[in-house]
């Protein structure tokens, strides 16, 4: 009831500019295996992913309407079967292969290139590996070296998957970075992780700061024609250094945080505009 009240208030207060349908989320099963309920109820949520090839689990055969996008997270996932009740059209490539701390998904450029034809063979629209922010741009960056090999060998990357973590909440800097990525690789962009946090000081993140950043960043990305999709990191509490930084949208009981309320407000405005556009 409280959530619905905040959604209604948000719709009345927020302007709704013309936007495309591209809002998503990164999520995983919580201790009660209820995240699918939240995903299906979230306003104007178009897609989700969970860093795996199988959809979020739920008991029985629940109705599913939000698109699931599978990911080949690491080399050990290359041969895994995709499991989805809905038709799958898109596949995400390796997750932070340039990050030695990424729980086994780190890969050399040579190894990633060697495995890439197996991802292409799935016959799905294919996103690039999502490197860390620092590994995305620059002549010697992991992503630039990977894309050099893609282009030299005639391999296929249909869009760029990127991660962006702001350490100061500057949305204009985020926008400038996205424009630089697009200028560099000349492909559509999916922002598959973003938030306002310094991972060297995760405890310094605040719900208020992330609520403001989420709202402004989503509105910014919705207006950029080359940003096809975006997904906040993350729906669930994510524990690091023994505690969960204040970036999650809901707690394990599915109660919204201040970030979650802001996320609902901005997505509700998007949904209202989409409905109005369809009615014209």
Automatic annotation (TrEMBL):
<feature type="domain" description="Asl1-like glycosyl hydrolase catalytic">
    <location>
        <begin position="35"/>
        <end position="260"/>
    </location>
</feature>
<dbReference type="InterPro" id="IPR017853">
    <property type="entry name" value="GH"/>
</dbReference>
<feature type="signal peptide">
    <location>
        <begin position="1"/>
        <end position="20"/>
    </location>
</feature>
<dbReference type="GO" id="GO:0016787">
    <property type="term" value="F:hydrolase activity"/>
</dbReference>
<dbReference type="Pfam" id="PF11790">
    <property type="entry name" value="Glyco_hydro_cc"/>
</dbReference>
<keyword id="KW-0378">Hydrolase</keyword>
<protein>
    <submittedName>
        <fullName>Glycosyl hydrolase</fullName>
    </submittedName>
</protein>
<keyword id="KW-0732">Signal</keyword>
<dbReference type="InterPro" id="IPR053183">
    <property type="entry name" value="ASL1"/>
</dbReference>
<dbReference type="InterPro" id="IPR024655">
    <property type="entry name" value="Asl1_glyco_hydro_catalytic"/>
</dbReference>
């Amino acid at each position: 009831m409280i959530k619905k009240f905040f959604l209604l208030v948000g719709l009345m207060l927020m302007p709704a500019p013309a936007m495309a349908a591209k809002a998503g989320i990164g999520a995983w099963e919580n201790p009660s295996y209820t995240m699918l309920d939240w995903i299906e109820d979230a306003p104007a949520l178009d897609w989700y992913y969970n860093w795996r090839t199988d959809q979020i689990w739920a008991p029985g055969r629940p109705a599913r309407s939000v698109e699931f996008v599978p990911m080949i997270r690491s080399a050990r996932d290359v041969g895994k079967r995709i499991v989805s009740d809905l038709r799958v059209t898109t596949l995400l490539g390796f997750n932070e292969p340039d990050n030695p701390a990424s729980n086994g998904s780190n890969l050399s450029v040579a190894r990633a290139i060697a495995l890439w034809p197996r991802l292409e063979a799935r016959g799905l629209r294919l996103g690039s590996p999502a490197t860390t922010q620092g590994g995305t741009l620059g002549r010697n960056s992991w992503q630039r070296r990977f894309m050099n090999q893609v282009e030299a060998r005639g391999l296929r990357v249909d869009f760029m998957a990127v991660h962006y973590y702001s350490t100061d909440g500057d949305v204009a800097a985020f926008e400038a970075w996205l424009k630089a990525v697009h200028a560099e690789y000349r492909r559509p962009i999916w922002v598959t992780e973003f938030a306002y946090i310094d991972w060297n000081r995760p405890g310094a993140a605040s719900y208020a700061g992330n609520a403001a950043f989420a709202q402004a960043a989503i509105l910014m990305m919705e207006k950029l024609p080359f940003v096809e999709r975006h997904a906040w990191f993350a729906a669930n509490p994510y524990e690091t250094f023994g505690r969960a930084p204040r970036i999650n949208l809901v707690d394990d009981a599915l109660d919204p945080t201040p970030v979650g309320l802001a996320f609902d407000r901005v997505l509700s405005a998007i949904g209202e505009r989409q409905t109005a556009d369809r009615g014209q």
